[in-house]
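fyi for ur records
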Amino acid sequence: QGMGAKAETGKNVTVNYTGKLLDGKVFDSNVDSKFKHVEPYTFKLGGGSVIKGWEEGIALFNAGGKGTLYIPSPLGWGSRANGQIPPNSITIFDVEVIEVK
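which gave:
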């Protein structure tokens, strides 16, 4: 869970993450240089800039926390395809909450 500040609505949260499909295929990561964006990702929790599964899942962490989020399709991209993510896909994210401000 982490011992730092709680990730709460309205706070800026900085994370490292790797997203994959149920078959293990990685579709995005900010810790793998092949995806060409290796800087930590910061977003405002509750601001609507990330999928609902992240809004709900990241709120369970404190700064310093690490875990895996299993995102059902309705809390992810639903029936829409998104790049390498087929419609109605369950997605898995390994996340590390680096900072909460």
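Residues 72 and 90 are 5 Å apart (CA to CA). thats all i got for now
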